[in-house]
Design a protein that fits this description.
By secondary structure, this protein is an alpha+beta fold. It contains seven helices and 13 strands.
């Protein structure tokens, strides 16, 4: 079978289990793991992203799912992944077909910048995405810290009354806009709340939001068992950004412990120099690294003065 026989359409709900198996097989095979199907442990990398904030595309040979990509919209910024193709169909142009449909979706969304996280050691991957205008920029380090008693001076979105949440979301949008104009995590925050994937940690000063972090916790989420995964975190730019960011990470530690997590995980782009330095100072160590590819070839949100965590895995 060839790519010419492949069709791309929205991933059907009945194909979610097959999609999860395909992603494990593809990534595990690429990484030469002895049991590819054990890749990602009990994390759900597909099902819980199939939400208001993300759209999943499937590549089909007839009725057989042979590839997929998940595309996420954070306001004016879009990113994608995981993109996976069944190993049986590697080298047959399936990924290119998926990428063409992905770029059409970004165009429909009118995003002003896009990004992805991929294997920094793989010319094949960077070459593919380069054909669609993405440039490899700084490394992204996936870092981890033991969950230790942190700050208790924080709130979470789930503890607020419904009447308070709209104002909180507005303030979070204002903070994320200092990271990148038009960046909006509202739907991501709402999805985590609605699907009970974790919570959004809020650093508050009276009724003012000083910083926020979207966190997954536990099996069946993007975190996995005994882990708290900080998918996004940010504080406003300004003179006290470093102190606020440190306090926000301490709040994430407190939330992790209260959730029964044993570790806290976060991915930081090295373009955010001060964020990386602060995580190192707080004791985070690197698990593995990849490269952020961006379109256009500009810093975007990955600037030295920005205190934020954006994990595009």
């Amino acid at each position: 079978m060839t790519a010419a026989e492949c069709t791309v359409r929205p991933l059907a709900a009945e194909d979610l289990d097959a999609a999860g198996r395909l992603v494990r097989l593809a990534f595990g095979t690429f990484l030469h793991l002895p049991d590819p199907m054990a890749t990602f442990g009990d994390r759900d990398m597909i099902g819980k992203r199939w939400s208001d904030t993300s759209k999943a595309l499937g590549a089909y040979m007839g009725q057989r799912l042979v590839g997929l990509n998940v595309i996420t919209k954070w306001g004016k910024f879009g990113w994608f992944g995981p993109l996976a193709v069944h190993p049986e169909f590697w080298g047959k142009g399936i990924a290119k077909i998926l990428m063409t449909s992905t770029m059409d979706m970004f165009s429909d969304w009118e995003t002003t910048a896009e990004g992805l996280f991929t294997f920094s050691e793989s010319p094949k991957h960077t070459g593919l995405y380069g054909k669609f205008g993405f440039y490899p920029r700084f490394l992204t380090l996936v870092m981890r810290h033991e969950a230790v008693a942190g700050s208790e001076g924080y709130s979470t979105l789930s503890k607020l009354e419904d009447s308070q949440q709209e104002d909180i979301l507005r303030q979070c949008r204002e903070i994320s806009a200092t990271v990148y104009p038009g960046l909006d995590l509202s739907q991501e925050i709402s999805s985590v709340e609605k699907r009970k994937l974790g919570d959004t940690v809020l650093l508050m000063d009276d009724s003012r939001v000083e910083g926020f972090a979207v966190c997954h916790t536990g099996a069946g989420t993007e975190a996995g068992s005994n882990n708290c995964y900080v998918k996004f975190a940010a504080v406003p730019s300004g003179d006290q950004s470093r102190e606020k960011f440190s306090n926000l990470i301490e709040a994430c530690m407190g939330f992790a412990v209260s959730s029964g997590a044993q570790t806290v995980e976060a991915g930081v782009n090295l373009g955010k120099t001060l964020t990386f330095e602060e995580l190192k100072r707080l004791g985070f160590t690197t698990l593995f690294q990849g490269v952020a590819m961006q379109r256009p070839n500009e810093p975007g949100s990955n600037r030295p003065e920005v205190f934020a965590i954006e994990d595009w895995r």
